[in-house]
């Protein structure tokens, strides 16, 4: 068998650390791997057909450009006189945008470049919390804030509640006439017989709206205007993100076998380990602050796409090296049910150098003369070795550079991998029927005045 696949040469995946040859009896035997790989072959072929017949809009999204032009124009207009851009929306209507914004340092204090400092601040409120929202809206600066409200369905209670509370606050501040300049909506186009509360509400106020792609569901929307809007706000080259994503689709079309296509290998391994080796938990652990939201985005993608009909594995987001000091004990020595994906960004020579004299004084001679990036690199290479010795399966994904193209490729990789895993498991990766019940019961409680 072959180990190591490239996604359009943007990164390198290795599943060697999941195999019996590397980690012993807890790894996958060559025959089991070959058998699962053969089962994914028809699904890879079906995916190629989905592309050719334009049946899966996600695979074509990277080729579109008109929506980027429209989003750029809307953002430029909205940003006039703005000091803060507030993004409301939840789940897939926020996590992709957060992931892309983080490439430009969002949520990593003290790292903003001069260009980023010159732009309006970017804030995301994806969780509904009364105290938080009161704090956000209780400010004399509402006129300098802009509110981008994203909901594919236009009916998500949390997002509607945020939008309505903000409209009321803006009105109360005497800014009612400014509302069409202060707000922007992203939601599905009007469809007869389908209510869209956000669209109806915003139309009433004359608020401009961008169309949410109808063929791309929330947790797959990071490459549409939903995810690209916050990226643009942080000054990220969104066309390069799409080019990176396209490289993965190109790799799919060019692949001669499932083994040649990294997302097919990733999906095969995740499913095979769960079925053959009792793996119940999938840990996504990047070693880079700028990828920590990627792990959060992946958690929704994997959980909602695969957790149905009794199938699925539990995704956990982790961050290296931080979580070596938190969750690693469990991954190394807890129940044999964890499978780790470690994402490494080449970091040797990056960052400040640790002074040898001071390191010696601190009793940490080994750190002396190394950069911070050298230390992180050593850790991120030592961990898979330690996992292998403990007989714990691990996949590594190596990035020579973290930039727009690589991140676009990673996002497309994980989305295709998840779709393929779903199809291999025999579940529909695009719905989430079980989340409805809690929504219905919430509505009932509110209607009863509970
Ligand atoms: O974009 P929206 O329609 O507001 O949906 C936002 C989120 O909420 C739903 O409950 C789903 O579980 C998620 O898959 C979705 O991303």
TrEMBL record:
Q: Name one Pfam family in it.
A: PGI
EC numbers: 5.3.1.9
User: Keyword Isomerase: yes or no?
Assistant: yes
Top-rank EC class of the record's enzyme: isomerase
CDD domains noted in UniProt: SIS_PGI_2
GO MF annotations in UniProt: carbohydrate derivative binding; glucose-6-phosphate isomerase activity; monosaccharide binding
Pathway, per record: Carbohydrate degradation; glycolysis; D-glyceraldehyde 3-phosphate and glycerone phosphate from D-glucose: step 2/4
The alphabetized UniProt keywords are:
Gluconeogenesis, Glycolysis, Isomerase
Write out the similarity annotation.
Answer: Belongs to the GPI family.
Protein name as it appears in the record:
Glucose-6-phosphate isomerase
């Amino acid at each position: 068998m072959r180990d190591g696949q490239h996604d359009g040469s943007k990164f390198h995946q290795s599943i060697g650390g999941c195999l019996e040859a590397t980690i012993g009896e807890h790894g996958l035997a060559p025959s089991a791997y070959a058998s699962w790989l053969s089962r994914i072959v028809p699904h890879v072929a079906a995916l190629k057909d989905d592309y050719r017949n334009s049946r899966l809009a996600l695979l074509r999204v990277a080729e579109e450009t008109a929506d980027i032009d429209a989003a750029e124009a809307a953002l430029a207009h909205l940003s006039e006189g703005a000091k803060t851009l507030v993004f409301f929306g939840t789940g897939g209507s926020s996590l992709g945008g957060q992931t892309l914004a983080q490439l430009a340092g969002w949520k990593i204090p003290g790292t903003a470049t001069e260009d980023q400092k010159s732009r309006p601040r970017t804030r995301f409120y994806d969780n509904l919390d009364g105290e938080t929202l009161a704090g956000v809206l209780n400010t004399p600066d509402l006129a300098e804030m802009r509110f981008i409200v994203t909901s594919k369905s236009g009916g998500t209670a949390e997002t509607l509640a945020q939008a309505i509370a903000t409209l009321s606050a803006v009105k109360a501040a005497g800014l009612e006439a400014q509302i069409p300049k202060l707000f922007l909506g992203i939601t599905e186009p009007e469809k007869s017989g389908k209510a869209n509360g956000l669209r109806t509400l915003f139309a009433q106020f004359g608020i401009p709206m961008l169309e949410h792609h109808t063929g791309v569901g929330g947790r797959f929307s990071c490459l549409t205007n939903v995810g690209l809007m916050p990226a643009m706000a942080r000054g990220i080259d969104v066309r390069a993100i799409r080019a990176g994503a396209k490289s993965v689709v190109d790799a799919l079309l060019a692949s001669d076998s499932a083994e040649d296509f990294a997302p097919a290998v990733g999906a095969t391994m995740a499913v095979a380990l769960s079925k053959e080796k009792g793996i119940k938990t999938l840990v996504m652990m990047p070693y880079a602050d700028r990828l920590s939201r990627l792990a959060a985005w992946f958690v929704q993608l994997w959980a909602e796409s695969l957790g149905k009909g009794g199938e699925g594995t539990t995704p956990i987001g982790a961050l290296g090296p931080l979580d070596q000091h938190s969750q690693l004990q469990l991954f190394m020595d807890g129940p044999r049910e964890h499978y780790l994906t470690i994402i490494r960004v080449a970091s040797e020579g990056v960052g400040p150098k640790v002074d040898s004299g001071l390191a010696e004084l601190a009793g940490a001679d080994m750190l002396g003369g190394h950069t911070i990036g050298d230390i992180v690199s050593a850790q991120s290479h030592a961990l898979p070795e330690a996992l292998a010795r403990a007989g714990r399966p691990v996949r590594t994904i190596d990035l020579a550079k973290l930039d727009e193209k690589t991140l676009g490729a990673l996002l497309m990789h994980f989305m295709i991998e998840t779709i393929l895993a779903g199809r291999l498991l025999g579940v529909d990766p695009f719905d989430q029927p079980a989340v409805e019940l809690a929504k219905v019961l919430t509505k009932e409680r509110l209607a009863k005045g509970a």
